[in-house]
Amino acid sequence: MGKRGHDNFGTDKVAKPTRESGDSTQQSPALATLVRVVNGAEGQVHPLLSEHFLIGRDKTCHILIRDDTSVSRKHASITRTGVKFMLEDLGSSNGVFVNGNKLAAPHELMVGDKVEIGSQAFIFKRRV
Predict the structure, then answer these.
(1) Which of 1, 64, 85, 88 has the fewest Cβ atoms surrounding its Cβ within 10 A?
(2) 107 neighbors 87 (Cβ within 8 angstroms)
(3) Which tens digit of pLDDT belongs to each residue from 74-97?
(4) What angle do CA 83, 87, 91 make, to 5 degrees?
(5) Percentage of residues in the chain with pLDDT exceeding 70?
(6) Are residues 66 and 60 in contact, defined by beta-carbon separation less than 8 angstroms?
(7) Cα–Cα distance between 79 and 88 in angstroms, integer?
(8) 3-state secondary structure of 11
(9) How many Cβ atoms are within 10 Å of 83's Cβ, its own excluded?
(10) Are 115 and 95 in contact (CB under 8 A)?
(11) Which residues, in sequence order, are CB contacts of 16 under 8 Å at separation 6+?
């Protein structure tokens, strides 16, 4: 029986996963991450692994921001629906900023968005 166009079957190269900046011990297979920015440098990587994330000072928050009184106990949330990640201010006193603009409604995070909560800054990233 002759070959039917499968001479190169199984030889296609697959792109290697990209590495995110930051501590290599915190690499994760997450679809998306928030990367903390400290003094202009990328730091701790926060993988967004489940459907709902809380950000704030409360010890029950997924992303805990300590020692910043400008951050509410439950300041903001990120909700994943399919491949969309929606950021929402949970009625905080000082607000949530994305790319320098204060959120007035839920915001769909896009690659490279800078999220500011209190004195903390994060960059939204996705794996490719």
Answers:
(1) 1
(2) yes
(3) 999 999 988 899 999 999 999 999
(4) 155
(5) 76
(6) no
(7) 8
(8) coil
(9) 8
(10) no
(11) none
- Return d(Cα 66, Cα 61) in angstroms, integer: 11
pTM: 0.74
Predicted confidence at residue 45, as pLDDT, reads 92
Here the tokens at position 115 are 């999220």
* Residue appearing with tokens 């499968």: 6
d(CA 22, CA 19): 9
Look up residue 56 and give its two tokens: 């704030």
Tell me what the pLDDT averaged over the chain comes to.
81
Residue 60 structure tokens: 């029950």
Position 113: which residue type? D
Cα–Cα distance for residue pair 101/11, rounded to 1 Å:
48
Distance, C-alpha 38 to centroid of its chain: 16
